[in-house]
Amino acid sequence: MLIFFGTRSVEVLNEKIEEKCGKCETENSLHASVHQVFFHVFWAPCLPIEKTGVIYCTSCNAIVPQERLIPHYKNLYLEVQKKARAPWWSFLGPMLLVLMIIAGIIGGSISDSYSADYILDPKKKDLYEVRLDDGNYTLYLVKDVSTDSVDFFIHEYQTDALSGLEQLKSKRFALDVYTMSKKELKKMFDEGDIMDVTRARWQ
Questions:
Q1: CB 82: neighbour CB atoms within 10 A?
Q2: pLDDT tens digits, one per residue of 135-186
Q3: Number of structural domains in the chain
Q4: Around 147, how many Cα atoms within 13 Å sit in the side-chain half-sphere?
Q5: Residue 162's beta-bridge partner residues?
Q6: Gap between the Cα atoms of 34 and 91, Å rounded
Q7: Does the residue 101 lie in any domain?
Q8: What CA–CA distance (Å, rounded) separates 3 from 95?
Q9: Strands (E), the chain
Q10: What is the helix (H) or strand (E) element at residue 163, kind and residue range?
Q11: DSSP string of 19-73?
């Protein structure tokens, strides 16, 4: 996938300077133009980088970039630049990042809440993501639920990474049945050994 990124600039302040032009000597014909440079990805602003600009004459159309100004005119330009502020949308990248982090935290809290509810009231075909004593991960599939216990099919395979459980979901479970009390399940969840519980949508 190609990612287009780079820098762009936009004028954020244009102010008249009470000074004569050094080239044509016309009084009060100078303007300072300040531009905000920002980093973009796919042309969407992500982060302001620096400010740059020019002084130009409306009489003779002379344009002098900031870096080529003599000290007197540079000081005049810098006074104008101090007033310039980066537009809010140039901070769009950090703002989106913060929103994504907040959404992730909220989503994780909601998921934990659902998992806790499912542990207290297990149903047939609930899928448990389980961390084993040796640090590996596997899946438990609820076969039946009684008053005090739950019967599981345990997956034939294990994985050494939590992310690997997604691949196990497409592979078969063992036919042997393992029974666990609801109190044991609650203890495993409280100790962090049950990572997540997924319930079939039609239940």
A1: 11
A2: 899 999 999 999 899 999 999 899 998 888 888 888 888 888 899 999 998 8
A3: 2
A4: 0
A5: none
A6: 18
A7: no
A8: 20
A9: 5-17, 30-41, 44-57, 63-65, 127-131, 137-145, 149-155, 173-181, 194-198
A10: none
A11: S--TTT--TT-EEEEEEEEEEEETTEEEEEEEEEEEEEETTT--EEEGGG--HHH
Look up the pTM and report it: 0.47
If you compute the radius of gyration of the chain from its CA atoms, what whole number of angstroms results? 32
pLDDT at residue 110 is higher than 90: no
Instruction: Count CA within 13 A, CB hemisphere, residue 59.
Output: 13
Alpha-carbon distances, residue 92 vs 3, 12, 166, 187, 194 (angstroms):
18, 16, 33, 44, 38
List pLDDT tens digits, range 39-95.
Answer: 877 777 778 888 999 999 999 999 999 888 889 889 999 999 999 888 887 777 777
**Do 186 and 149 contact (CB within 8 A), yes or no?**
no
Tokens of 172: 């078969």
How confident is the model at residue 107, as a pLDDT? Answer: 58
Shared domain check, 77 and 12: yes
Do 139 and 57 have their domain in common?
Answer: no
